[in-house]
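PROTEIN DESIGN WORKSHEET
SECTION A - STRUCTURE
LENGTH: 193
TOKENS:
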């Protein structure tokens, strides 16, 4: 049986399995875009510095951006469990799901990744860690190693001035509001990259 474009059904193009290079959690959504649900962590240290990853476009390496720790939610995982797992894999920090505050934000992000336009429904949690916590990239997947350059702690005032793209947009201001405490309300961020 074949699908659109003569592709065999079940090849990830029709929601049956992984989409090329993106991983098993990506399926084609009803809008025709690769889709997954994601969990992200806003990681702050005791000095209210924010931990971010810097990535680049594998197909246009000169394009770089900063983004929060996180990724896809595996089958059978809760949002909270996925966020804690992603923190461990991408930073080496061990944070239990019960230590995550939130969800503080949700958003539907549409972005280009591996020369494809993708969509991800995201939920964001906040985690606090000790200043000087040891970071490692040993848990990065092969896909992450292809596009993630480094981890970096940011002063929010410096992040607000950076010229590279930062996702989600306005992150420094959003986090500044959380650094003083969360009011218990989950806010939906504007859809977009």
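SECTION B - SEQUENCE
RESIDUE ASSIGNMENT:
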């Amino acid at each position: 049986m074949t699908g659109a474009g003569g592709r065999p059904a079940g090849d990830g193009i029709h929601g049956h399995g992984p989409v090329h290079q993106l991983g098993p959690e990506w399926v084609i959504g009803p809008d025709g875009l690769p889709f997954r649900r994601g969990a992200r962590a806003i990681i702050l240290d005791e000095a209210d510095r924010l931990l971010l990853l810097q990535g680049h476009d594998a197909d246009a390496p000169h394009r770089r951006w900063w983004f929060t720790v996180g990724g896809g939610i595996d089958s059978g995982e809760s949002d909270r469990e996925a966020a804690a797992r992603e923190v461990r894999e991408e930073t080496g920090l061990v944070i239990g799901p019960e230590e995550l505050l939130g969800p503080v934000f949700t958003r539907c992000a549409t972005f280009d990744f591996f020369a494809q336009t993708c969509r991800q429904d995201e939920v964001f949690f906040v985690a606090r860690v000790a200043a000087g916590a040891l970071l490692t990239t040993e848990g990065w997947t092969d896909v992450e190693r292809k596009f993630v350059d480094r981890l970096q702690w940011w002063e929010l005032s410096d992040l607000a001035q950076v010229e590279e793209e930062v996702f989600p947009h306005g992150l420094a201001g959003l986090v500044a509001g959380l650094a003083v405490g969360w009011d218990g309300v989950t806010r939906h961020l504007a859809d977009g990259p």
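SECTION C - NOTES
The chain is about 15% helix and 35% strand.
The domain at 36-182 is CATH 3.90.79.10 (Nucleoside Triphosphate Pyrophosphohydrolase).
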